[in-house]
Fold this protein.
Amino acid sequence: MNRLLRLLAPRYYVPAVFDLTPSRLRAWGIEALMLDLDNTLVAWGEIEPPDEVLAWLEDLRQSGIPVCLVSNTLSRRLGAAKVVFDLPAAGGRSKPSADKLRRALRILGTSPERTAMVGDQLFTDVLAGNRLGVPTVLTGPLSSYEPLRVRFVRAIERLVLRALARKGVVPVRQ
Ligand SMILES: [Mg+2]
């Protein structure tokens, strides 16, 4: 696999974030999560998460799996999300820079090998995680609505996903 493709390849793929059950994470040797916000935890531009996401976060809390938000959204909106989710959020330069992730690791106090970056986009979430060398999880997007600029990125993303699928890395997403 060439270097660029390797940087975009997630280690794991799940259809939705709440498929990352504590037992599955334990089996993968992951004990903390850095989580994207838009279309990973909430529908695009929303602030209220679906019930499944809230139940899943509660499950993680009870299992002692700490979580930190790493989102490129505006700081005011991220502030609101922190309150809704009652979770810490890392500041710093936007993904695909690994800056926010590095800060999130300090907040979580966990080791990079056991802290996964989870998100719905290859060119921000997965790329940032791979640049830092942490395990990466690609999730299916929570909602089908996305702004035009993201839909454009998705078209390119689909090509990369197809190339990765040919190499047996991730299943093709519809
Ligand atoms: Mg996202």
Observations:
- Residues 68 and 87 are 6 Å apart (CA to CA).
- DSSP finds seven helices and five strands in the chain.
